[in-house]
Amino acid sequence: MTGAMVELVQTDPEQAELIRNLYQFYAYESSDWEQEDVEVDGRFYIHDAHLARYWREPQWSANLILVDGFIAGFLLIEQSELPGLEALELADLFILKKYRRLGIGRALATQVLMSGEHAWLVRFYQQDETAGAFWRAVLDDLPRPVNAIEPDDDGQLLTFLVTPTTH
Q: In angstroms, rounded to a whole number, what is the distance separating the alpha carbons of residues 81 and 70?
């Protein structure tokens, strides 16, 4: 990674519009394989009630990624809602193109997945080749146990459970 200063900053509800705006770029990049169209206002659909949960629900958070003080992307974290699974989920990680291929996303993902003594879920769509390559590289180098699991909620999602190491 470069010598840039990288920060992960948790947002508050007053920054919801900022996250909403950045999410448009994320939706645009996945629109080719998700086959989504823009709404009549020219924007991709965002489920506002779900977005609001990042500032209401325990263990949910919407975080900005800053590089040298500039917005470089976002990271959304959720409490997993898969039945019988107690884990946090790295729901969405997005890095603006200017900041890609510098190791920022990989370093942040590794840092987050190694934090705490809880399990983490990583999920991505099979069709998203870029995400697949990224997450496989991150998970292959992670010094924690990583297991593929197959929940019944969405057959298009590849799901990995990262568990804490036992001492």
A: 33
Q: Which fold has domain 6-162?
A: Aminopeptidase (3.40.630)
At 78, which helix (H) or strand (E)? strand 70-79
3-class state of residue 133 by DSSP: helix
Please give the Cα distance from 115 to 52 (Å, whole number). Answer: 24
Q: pLDDT digit string (tens) for 97-118?
A: 999 999 999 999 999 999 888 9
Place of tokens 């909403």: 20
Q: Using CA atoms, how far apart are residues 15 and 11, in angstroms rounded to an integer?
A: 6
CA atoms of 73 and 94, how far apart (whole Å): 5
Say if residue 2's pLDDT is above 60: no
How far are the Cα atoms of 28, 63, 100, 140 from residue 66, in angstroms, in the given order? 21, 9, 13, 26
pLDDT tens digits, one per residue of 54-76: 999 999 999 999 999 999 999 99
More confident residue, 151 or 51: 51
Phi, psi of 24 (to 5 degrees): -60, -40
Determine contact, residues 124/92, Cβ cutoff 8 Å: no
Residue listed under structure tokens 């519009």: 17
CA distance readout (Å), 21 to 45, 79, 81, 123: 11, 23, 25, 23
